[in-house]
Amino acid sequence: MRPLARFSLACSLALLSTQPAAAQSFPSDDPVIRAIWEEGVERSQVYALGQVMMDSIGPRLTGSPAMAGANDWALAKYAEWGIEAYKEQYGTWRGWERGITHIDLVSPRVRSLEGMAAAWSPATDGPVEAEVVILADGGSPEAFQAWLPEVQDKFVLISRPEASCRPRENLEQFSRPETLARMSEERERVIAAWREREENTGVGRRALPEALDAAGAAGVIRSQWSEGWGVNKIFGTGNERAPLLDLSCEAYGLLYRLAENGQGPVLRVDAQARFLGEVPVSNAFAVIPGSADPEEYVILGGHYDSWDGSDGALDNGTGAVAIMEAMRILKYAVPNPRRTIIGALWNGEEQGLNGSRAFVEDHPEILERTHTVFNIDHGNGPVTFIPMQGFAAAGGRFGDWLAQIPSELADLVTLEIPGMPESGGTDHASFLCAGVPAFSFHVGAGRSAMNIADNRWDTSTYTWHTNRDSFDKIIYEDLRDDALMTALFAYLASEDPEPMPRDQRAMPDGSQWPDCRPPARSSGSP
User: Fold this and answer.
1) Residue 490's closest CA among 328, 281, 250?
2) How far, in Å, CA of 117 to CA of 122, rounded?
3) What does the pLDDT look like over 242-265, one tens digit per residue?
């Protein structure tokens, strides 16, 4: 590393410990709270943990070698800190390792295109060169079936085109009113027409790539634009032979216009990947044993797996870092808590909360004596909104805890009382359905008119499941505060004189407490 690079990193770490979270106001004289605060502020390790997790290990796709390696690295860090840690297998998943993807336009002109293969996409057998065609609209499922043989050895475009890849707020700011109205109307027409085209296939949007795969297509091409500058959602595929490629909004639009106007687009694609069969998948746990009530539990959880279009930074590397840092702080400041504290790094969340659902199914003896579950899956903090998830008496307990947390963090938090139990979305839902008090932290303005996931840092547009969810998007002052808040809540919950009440609210007419769903224990599970 050059001296300038070393100096920059040292400055970043030094500045992190001097930012405004260094509070002077402590509502109580509890020395443990002061010790937690000092350790978390003065000796924060969130930057170093995040840099290794996101840059060196990278995205942690379920079933990938990187996910398995991430678990091993976490266990090694816990051991370094003197914390008991272990992995627990809950099933198997489709093992796959990404290689490079080159996507080049070779006719009518030459240009490399921005894009990548979807997760679990088959590889090409070396570079493949083929014509690009648009999904046909024959008007009926029968017409679609008659057209299918024509996709043999061709790349097929299956997403609607975008007239402009400018975000709407950019158009609203700069375009004439009549231009904005025209473009909005045109976009609505295209959306409706493309939806009808998909319905006319008779196979549905989700099954369409596999139908084209079975028909002998050279590859399937889509673009899941996230409606921001340069961002696409990157998910997976069940294709067995033909690669599925995700292209940027701009690159996809180029191909679509060339094909639509009969200008003969031809692609050369080299997509490399390695299938590994069904491989073991595991959750990773760290444990600080309780001293007075070791068989009562406080669980800190966040999912460790990610999609692999980028580095899985805000979804949910930040949550995983906060869990690890909170456990490190607690081991230092609270080595003998009253209740046992478990730090859980869940796997398989992106495929349906499978890791946490498996834990709930496999460990009824722990659930019966779990005091509280705290879940972190919100990207950049600090925490500003905590729904009580329908537990009628939880608001009072959180109020007691917040009264003991330094006001620099506590005053940011709004509680939603009593709230409604959530049936999915992230891992706390796996516990809620079993009646376990489980709470997920949120950021932003709470349940405003905006999307709850999109009211801070434009998360749902720019990082959630996108190709831009990388290390540089992390705000490390926020992440430090998330780890601090998590450690403080865990400590206070671990010392509570009484268990967290499990009284459930009266549900509104037409609503009921969510039922638990079984986890998928393998990639072939229904």
Assistant:
1) 328
2) 9
3) 999 999 999 999 999 999 999 999
Task: Kindly report, residue by residue over 372-404, the tens digit of the pLDDT.
Answer: 999 999 998 889 999 999 999 999 999 999 999
| Paired sense of beta strands 339-346 and 370-375, if any | unpaired
Tokens of 188: 């609505």
Q: How far apart are CA 94 and CA 354, in angstroms?
A: 14
Structure-token pair, residue 419: 């709230």
Contact 215, 156 (CB under 8 A): no
- Are 462 and 228 in contact, with CB atoms under 8 Å apart? yes
Phi and psi dihedrals of 84, rounded to 5?
-60, 135
345-372 in b/e form (b: 16+ CB < 10 A) is: bbbbbbbebbbbbbbbbeeeebbeebbb
The strand pairing partners of 274, in sequence order, are 97
Predicted TM-score (pTM) of this structure: 0.94
Dihedral angle, C-alpha 343, 345, 350, 352, nearest 10 ° = -60
Is the CB of residue 439 less than 8 Å from the CB of residue 375? yes
Question: Three-state DSSP class for 297?
Answer: strand
Buried residues in 261-283 as b, exposed as e (16+ CB within 10 A):
eeeebbbbbbbebeeeeebebbb
CA distance between the termini of the chain: 49
Q: What stretches of 403-520 show up as alpha helix (H) in DSSP?
A: 407-410, 428-432, 459-462, 476-494
Alpha-carbon distance 495 to 293, whole Å?
A: 10
Between strands 438-440 and 370-375, the pairing is: parallel
Q: What are 332-385's pLDDT values in tens digits? A: 999 999 999 999 999 999 999 999 999 999 999 999 999 999 999 999 888 999
Residue 129's DSSP bridge partners are 268
Rg over CA atoms, the chain: 25
Helical segments of 94-207, H only = 141-147, 168-174, 177-201
Contact 62, 280 (CB under 8 A): no
